[in-house]
């Protein structure tokens, strides 16, 4: 797909996400679409959600990204599309997590990739949370290798930061962020500890997902190319995870 096509598709898929509107009576604020791969893509913050006494803004375009990836890879997808009166990711018990539990009991899910958004102020592109390796001990190397092969390289404190840079759990040691659930009840922690399904939390900066507001410091063409690149990277990651899960199931 060309960058222009990617942006167009993401805009279309995001257009029916109701960030600040509750679902109609009798509807849940999240939707599930079954797939054919043993991988489930999750976007629990696709719309606004209730946390600490207020509605917290959505992680825009995370719903559109998992929907597009589901179409292109065959992965299962679960995402919020309307405002939620709970926090699907942080609350210990939530309808979203119970639906994930039900899906896991009915479908052959071997990996959960939970997608979130972070601000550009962190000055790096992708953060990976694996609970310091506990949430996906067999696939952590595969996740990191796939991202690095696509140009998302790890950085040190001495290096200049950019949106093509990568951080994972060791970043949490200093900043206590993006661990994927060491001290709270994230989807990643829920999947790995309660459902016994390997999982990882991915955080994408705004410039790698927010198609409507490409970074002012970059041309529209450059911004579109960056978003198209992360979509392609995630396609490759889903395919690699599906292959790894399938191979492991055959051995066992």
Describe this structure as you would to a colleague:
The protein is of the alpha/beta class. Helices cover 37% and strands 18% of the residues. The protein has an 8-stranded mixed sheet, sandwiched between helices. Strand 3 (49-51) and strand 4 (54-56) form a beta hairpin. The longest helix is centred in the last third of the chain and has 32 residues, at 220-251. It is globular and about 45 Å long. Mean pLDDT is 86; it is low at 157-163 and 168-177.
Task: Describe the structure using short key phrases.
252 residues; alpha/beta; 8-stranded mixed beta sheet; two-stranded antiparallel ribbon; 7 helices; 10 strands; 18% strand; globular
What would you report as the Rg, rounded to the nearest angstrom? 17 Å
Secondary structure tally, helices: 7
Strand content: 15-25%
Helical content band? 25-40%
Detail the poorly predicted runs.
157-163, 168-177
For the largest sheet, list the strands in their spatial order: 1-5-2-6-10-7-9-8
Distance between the termini: 37 Å
Largest sheet: 8 strands, mixed
């Amino acid at each position: 797909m060309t960058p222009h096509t990617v942006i167009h598709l993401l805009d279309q898929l995001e257009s029916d996400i109701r960030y600040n509107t509750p679902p109609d009576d009798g509807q849940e604020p999240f939707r599930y679409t079954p797939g054919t791969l043993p991988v489930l893509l999750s976007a629990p913050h696709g719309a606004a959600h209730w946390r600490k006494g207020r509605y917290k803004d959505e992680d825009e375009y995370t719903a559109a990204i998992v929907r597009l990836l589901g179409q292109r890879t065959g992965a299962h997808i679960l995402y919020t599309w309307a405002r939620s009166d709970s926090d699907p990711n942080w609350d210990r018990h939530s309808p979203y997590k119970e639906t994930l539990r039900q899906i896991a009991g009915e479908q052959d899910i071997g990996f959960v990739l939970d997608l979130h958004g972070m601000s550009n102020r962190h000055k790096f592109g992708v953060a990976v949370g694996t609970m310091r390796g506990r949430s996906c001990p067999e696939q952590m190397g595969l996740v990191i290798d796939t991202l690095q092969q696509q140009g998302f390289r790890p950085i040190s404190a001495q290096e200049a930061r950019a949106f093509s840079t990568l951080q994972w759990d060791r970043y949490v040691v200093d900043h206590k962020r993006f661990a994927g659930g060491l001290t709270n009840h994230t989807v990643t922690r829920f999947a790995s500890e309660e459902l016994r399904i390997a999982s990882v939390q991915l955080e994408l900066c705004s410039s790698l997902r927010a198609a409507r507001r490409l970074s002012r410091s970059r041309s529209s063409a450059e911004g579109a190319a960056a978003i198209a690149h992360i979509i392609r990277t995630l396609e490759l990651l889903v395919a690699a995870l599906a292959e790894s899960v399938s191979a492991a199931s055959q051995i066992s």
